[in-house]
Amino acid sequence: MAEKGIFAGLPWWVKWIAVPALVLVVFGSLIMTVLGFVIALVFKALLLVALIGGLIFIVKKFTSSSSSKSDW
Predict the structure, then answer these.
(1) How would residue 19 be classed by pLDDT, with cut points 50, 70 and 90?
(2) How far apart are CA 17 and CA 7, in angstroms?
(3) DSSP string of 8-30?
(4) Mean predicted lDDT score pLDDT of the chain
(5) Which candidate, 40, 38, 59, 60, places its Cα nearest to that of 48?
(6) Choosing a second label site near 50 at 20 to 30 A (CA), which of 23, 26, 43, 69?
(7) Which chain regions cross the lipid bilayer (predicted)?
(8) Hey, is 72 helix, strand or coil?
(9) Residue 10, Cβ neighbours under 10 Å: how many?
């Protein structure tokens, strides 16, 4: 099978070690910034879901206890 492209004829370690290492060196801070943003966004979304769930739980608890006392 003949390889075509820019990596044809290069050793395996260039394709699988040197090139990814260079990508991490050049774009490492960008990758970490995007990854940090995504993690922060997921954390905030989970926090929002938990707060809304807690609010709904508290409101239902108090409204069900107050409505049972004021039933005619």
Answers:
(1) very high
(2) 13
(3) TT--HHIIIIIHHHHHHHHHHHH
(4) 89
(5) 40
(6) 69
(7) 12-31, 37-59
(8) coil
(9) 13
Tell me what pLDDT residue 55 has.
Answer: 97
Q: Are the C-beta atoms of 24 and 31 separated by less than 8 Å?
A: yes
- Token pair, residue 11, equals 């050793």
- Both structure tokens of 42: 């997921």
Q: Say if residues 14 and 7 touch (Cβ distance below 8 Å).
A: yes
- Paired tokens of 50: 């938990």
Question: Do residues 15 and 7 make contact, with C-beta atoms less than 8 angstroms apart?
Answer: yes
Model confidence over 31-61: pLDDT tens digits? 999 999 999 999 999 999 999 999 999 999 9
Q: Is the pLDDT of residue 65 over 80?
A: no
